[in-house]
């Protein structure tokens, strides 16, 4: 068994995200969403041509801004979090994390001889903690932000998605008995084969993962900012909106199966849909849809096979019954001719015989 890696032995360079997407401060939020969808990445660094990095925007930021009614035509410079601290790429991970907490941010720029070499985030730290099997123990206070959503390991994925969308954070901590068991972040949301989405009260998609894009056969840039009527056939879109309204009005999470028709064909999905609550107000819905098409098709095939077996069994039983009747008729004719029975297996026992 390999030795566990302690935080003290890790450097920023060990967990750095080297491929960084940048955007100018004069760009719109639509352009940010499009860049994230094309790359695809969960955050972009806002860089002024002559002034270097000015801040950072994440998928969680876009969701939070949309939930709070900020138009996506708004300029990045109006909403970007000002200032993005930096640390040398060779700095130890513990002191880099202390800097993250001191500045109250979720990411730091890692610099290599004055140039931006990549990003290091609190999510990267948590992920490395889980991957390395580190016993948090004394590291708990220095390795956990107080405002990150926390869930128990038996929570469903829908609760994690709702927590990330509600709080505008890029991850949730999975905890049990005061210990961090692991994290669930935006990267895992992107990688899952389940279609995950968030819509505002008017039905406009403000968040969607790659599984949604695969289902619709469209890039994410053509999904975000549109509603169901722009993406699905009218009857399907109307059904989805009715589901949304029911969830918003009831305030309860629902789990149900429903058919989904897309340009790529007809599918059967198991849907978990619930209200997105921010500041005690329902601002929209979140949803997770799992493709059950192959499983349901397999069930139908098994049911068809079983039905065929039943028909064959009933036909054989009917044929066997007719054979027994014919044997009885032959025995009856032989008895009328004063001859002994040919088929003794179908003879009825005389009174008082046969059972004992």
Could you characterize what this model shows?
The protein has a five-stranded antiparallel sheet with strand order 11-10-14-13-12, with helices on both faces. A three-stranded mixed sheet has the order 1-2-3. The chain has a three-stranded mixed sheet with strand order 4-5-6. It folds into three domains: 7-143, CBS-domain (Roll); 192-291, Beta-Lactamase; 310-346. It is built from eleven helices and 14 strands. The protein is elongated. Mean pLDDT is 75; it is low at 1-7, 129-146 and 351-356. The N and C termini lie far apart (71 Å). With 356 residues, the protein is an alpha+beta fold. A hairpin with a 3-residue loop joins β2 (43-48) and β3. α3 (59-67) crosses α7 (157-167). It has helices at 12-15, 29-38, 59-67, 76-79, 93-103, 122-132, 157-167, 186-191, 210-216, 234-250, 293-336, and strands spanning 22-23, 43-48, 52-58, 86-88, 107-112, 115-121, 150-151, 171-176, 179-185, 195-200, 205-208, 254-262, 265-278, 281-291. 29% of the residues are buried.
CATH superfamily descriptor of the largest domain: CBS-domain
- Average pLDDT works out at 75
Describe the global form.
elongated
Count the domains: 3
User: Regarding CATH, which class of the largest domain?
Assistant: Alpha Beta
Largest sheet geometry: 5 strands, antiparallel
Order of helices and strands: HEHEEHHEHEEHEHEEHEEHHEEEH
Calculate the terminal CA-CA distance, rounded to whole Å. Answer: 71 Å
Strand fraction equals 25-35%
Total count of strands: 14
Briefly note the CATH topology name of the largest domain. Answer: CBS-domain
Number of helices: 11
Radius of gyration, rounded? 32 Å
Helix content: 25-40%
């Amino acid at each position: 068994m390999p030795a566990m890696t302690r935080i003290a032995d890790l450097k920023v360079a060990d967990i750095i995200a080297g491929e960084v997407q940048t955007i100018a401060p004069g760009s719109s939020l639509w352009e940010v969403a499009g860049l994230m969808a094309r790359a695809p990445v969960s955050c972009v660094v806002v860089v002024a041509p002559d002034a270097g990095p000015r801040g950072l925007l994440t998928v969680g930021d876009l969701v939070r801004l949309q939930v709070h009614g900020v138009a996506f035509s708004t300029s990045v410079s109006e909403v970007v979090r000002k200032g993005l601290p930096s640390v040398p790429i060779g700095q130890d991970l513990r002191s880099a994390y202390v800097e993250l907490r001191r500045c109250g941010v979720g990411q730091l720029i890692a610099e290599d001889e004055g140039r931006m070499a990549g990003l290091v985030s609190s999510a990267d730290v948590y992920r490395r903690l889980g991957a390395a099997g580190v016993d948090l123990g004394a590291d708990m206070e220095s390795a956990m932000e107080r405002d990150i959503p926390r869930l128990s390991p038996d929570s469903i994925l829908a609760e994690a998605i709702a927590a990330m969308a509600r709080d505008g954070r890029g991850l949730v901590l999975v905890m049990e008995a005061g210990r961090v068991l692991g994290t669930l972040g935006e990267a895992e949301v992107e990688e899952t084969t389940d279609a995950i989405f968030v819509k505002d009260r008017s039905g406009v998609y403000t968040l969607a993962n790659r599984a949604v894009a695969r289902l619709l056969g469209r890039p994410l840039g053509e999904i975000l900012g549109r509603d169901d009527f722009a993406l699905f056939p009218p009857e399907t879109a109307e059904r989805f909106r009715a589901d949304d309204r029911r969830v918003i009005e009831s305030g309860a999470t629902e789990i149900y199966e429903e058919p989904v028709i897309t340009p790529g064909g007809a599918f059967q999905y198991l849907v978990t849909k619930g209200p997105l609550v921010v500041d005690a107000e329902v601002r929209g819905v979140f949803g997770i849809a799992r493709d059950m098409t192959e499983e349901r098709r397999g069930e139908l095939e098994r049911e068809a096979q079983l039905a065929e077996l039943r028909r064959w069994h009933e036909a054989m039983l009917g044929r066997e019954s007719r054979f027994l009747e014919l044997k009885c008729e032959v025995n009856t004719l032989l008895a009328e001719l004063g001859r002994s029975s040919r088929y003794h297996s179908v003879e009825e026992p005389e009174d008082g015989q046969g059972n004992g």
